[in-house]
Specification:
mainly alpha, two-stranded antiparallel ribbon
């Protein structure tokens, strides 16, 4: 029997007891009127009386509190079941407005009427994420930097000021504390199956959220404050997330519609069969998978991804514990360690006992699954889908299909990869083979290395616009006294040529013409070829990451210089043609035109050097670690040059003579370390 078949729960015995049994031990019939007044106000004093405290330090006794609150939660659940939707809206809708998600909370009421376990779990996940976001907005009425973690937010003095400490302790019994029910983490990390989440806890959180709205209204009236909701995160550049492509369908001569044909009804039907047969899926979690695929079919893309992400974590945790021979870690060790084995640990290079983590190797070369997961979930410049969904940062109604498409397609590849032998027909299906091919070719897009590649290419595109800029005739530039026969410019060109000659052996062949070595080498085509070199982004050592920070800053400054040159050139040309420049301004304009002819190859050379660093320094740090602090110091001096260049070329300064002088000094310094540079490259190769 496969392990995925034999596992009946991912909750350890203590965690299972707390969540599934503790709140059912008291059989009292609790009267809802004890905590709900005739006018519909939550009687918070009566609710908070059920929170118990330890005699030793007066901290919350979570075990006794859960036990005491069990009948209260059941009473609330029965109360909601007794209401029609219209009655519920009249009595409670107003008190959900502070969350900025009123409709979501009304939908949770609908779910509770039917007690479908999967839908209750989904409703609870959405409720907790939106509640956290709303509490963060309240926090900002008083505080400045909202805590990232829910447990820190609930423990903050700021929320205690608004709602009262006793009220916050109630919330911590249900969410936020690893010693309580911890419902948010249990669900978002995939430890609980649908049938293990009592619906009455979802009902109680719905009730408490309305009560918080009542308390908040009182606070706002007293303080004259206005609650401001932070804007949602919006996914931009969705094309960067397009790993598993669709195709363009021509609707008319002027309209193209992007169709994700790989995830059509037929593909999703295959996925449903794969879910039932794949060893990647725990059978107790099967309802979550089926509900996720159903949600995608119904265009409920946020619901689909919310359901699917924890299940990907469960499947990967199953592989992690199997390949690293630690099956006990499939379960929650204790209630307080519910998120002990999460994505960060599963994708780490080494385990906490310093042994090598075997999961990335099992996921396949070239580490496509690991790089995909890091890109979509962890990297700071990536979409960080799980974080943003679970913390309520995304408008669920506007969740993009493009993102859901990628997550579902990636899940299908894992289902297929970790499946039993009787799956040949599915694996040979054309669409499945296409998805598998896309996955096997995946390269990180949001690692700092990948972002730097993108930066240098964008910067080079900008610099390549310079020759197309409007300019006065060349003979007018040469007529200006002091510009002809510029010795500094000649020296500059000579130094660039010499450095290119030294670097030639590390560049693609046939990229240099003898008649124009500079312009034939320092091209966008060369950078594209260099950037196409694959570099494994997993587990980049600290020296590489530190150097990358500096290289990215250098690239950013070069781009700023280019944008300033473009803007200044266009403006001055317009003023020249309109004859609005004074004599000194005309002279300075012509000096600028002369300077940028030589500044262009310098900036392009720096971009080429940066790109070469990506391959060579990375390899050197791995194969033959060196004293990178000295090397880092040099790169920081290049950064200083580019920062000064930004200042001198700004519209406010326009110091073009100083720009040429600064550039010559910088090139001399770069040339001095060229021997060192070549030595590093030789070590790398």
């Amino acid at each position: 029997m496969a392990l995925s078949d034999s596992v009946t729960t991912c909750l350890s015995p203590p965690a299972h007891y707390v969540i599934c049994k503790l709140g059912f031990e008291k059989k009292d019939n609790y009267d809802i009127n004890n905590i709900l007044s005739e006018n519909g106000d939550v009687c918070w004093q009566a609710v908070t009386e059920h929170v118990c405290y330890l005699e030793s330090d007066q901290s919350v006794d979570y075990i006794k509190s859960i036990q005491s609150l069990g009948p209260v939660c059941e009473s609330v659940n029965l109360h909601f079941k007794s209401l029609t939707k219209e009655q519920f809206v009249i009595q409670y809708a107003l008190w959900f407005r502070w969350t900025n998600c009123t409709e979501l909370f009304l939908d949770v009421f609908d779910v509770l009427q039917y007690t479908q376990t999967t839908e209750v779990a989904l409703g609870l996940m959405k409720l907790t994420s939106c509640l956290e976001r709303a509490l963060g907005d309240v926090y900002l009425l008083i505080g400045k930097d909202c805590p990232f973690l829910l447990r820190d937010l609930l423990a903050s003095e700021q929320l205690a000021v608004v709602f009262g400490q006793a009220v916050m302790n109630i919330l911590r019994v249900f969410i936020g504390s690893p010693y309580g029910l911890n419902l948010r983490n249990v669900l978002w990390h995939g430890f609980a199956s649908p049938q293990e989440i009592p619906a009455k806890y979802c009902a109680m959180l719905l009730f408490l959220t309305a009560g918080l709205g009542q308390l908040l209204q009182t606070y706002l009236l007293q303080t004259k404050c206005v609650l401001v909701h932070r804007p949602y995160v919006i996914f931009i550049s969705l094309e960067e997330l397009n790993v598993f492509p669709g195709k363009y369908l021509t609707i008319s001569k002027f309209l193209l519609c992007y169709i994700y044909y790989y995830l059509d009804h037929e593909t999703l039907s295959i996925a449903e069969e794969l879910v039932k047969l794949s060893s990647f899926v725990l059978k107790t979690m099967l309802p979550f998978w089926m509900a996720a695929l159903k949600a995608f079919k119904q265009s409920r893309y946020a619901d689909c991804v919310i359901l699917l992400l924890p299940q990907l974590e469960v499947g990967l945790r199953l592989l992690f514990t199997t390949t690293n021979n630690c099956p006990n870690r499939l379960l929650t060790a204790e209630v307080k360690f519910l998120s002990k084995v999460n994505y960060d640990l599963m994708l780490a290079k080494c385990l906490d006992n310093e042994e090598v983590n075997q999961l990335p190797a099992v996921l396949g070369e070239p580490a496509m699954a690991s790089e995909f997961l890091w890109d979509f979930l962890n990297h700071q410049e990536g979409p960080r889908i799980r974080d943003r969904l679970s913390h309520g940062e995304i408008n669920l109604e506007a969740f993009p299909r493009e993102v859901a498409n990628q997550i579902v397609a990636f899940a299908i590849t894992l289902l297929c990869r970790f499946s039993d032998g009787d799956m040949f027909a599915f694996k040979e299906h054309m669409v499945i083979k296409t998805l598998m091919n896309c996955a096997s070719c995946y390269r990180s897009r949001f690692h700092p290395i990948s972002r730097l590649k993108k930066q240098v290419l964008e910067c080079m595109k900008s610099i390549h616009l310079w020759p197309e800029l409007p300019t006065v005739p060349e003979e007018r530039v040469q007529m200006i006294k002091g510009l002809e026969g510029n010795a500094e410019a000649s020296t500059l060109i000579l130094m660039i040529s010499e450095m290119l000659s030294q670097l030639q052996q590390y560049m693609p062949q046939n990229c240099c013409r003898s008649d124009d070595p500079i312009n034939s080498v320092l091209t966008e085509r060369l950078l594209i070829e260099l950037c196409d070199t694959h570099i494994c982004t997993l587990y980049s050592p600290r020296p590489v990451l530190e150097i990358l920070v500096v290289l990215r800053k250098i690239s950013t400054q070069c781009h700023r210089v280019s944008e300033q040159v473009i803007a200044s050139t266009a403006l001055r040309y317009k003023q020249w043609m309109n004859k609005t420049l004074r004599s000194r301004q005309r002279h300075n304009y012509l000096r600028m035109l002369n300077s940028i002819k030589f500044l262009s190859p310098v900036l392009r050379l720096i971009l080429v050097l940066i790109t070469l660093e990506l391959v060579n320094v990375h390899l050197v740090c791995k194969k033959n670690p060196f004293d990178y602090q000295q090397y880092l110091k040099f790169m920081k001096s290049v950064l200083q040059y580019t920062e000064n260049l930004v200042t001198y070329t700004s519209p406010e300064k326009n110091k073009w003579d100083e720009t040429m002088e600064l550039t010559n000094k910088a090139l001399i310094k770069i040339r001095k370390i060229s021997d060192r540079k070549l030595m590093l490259m030789q070590l790398a190769t």
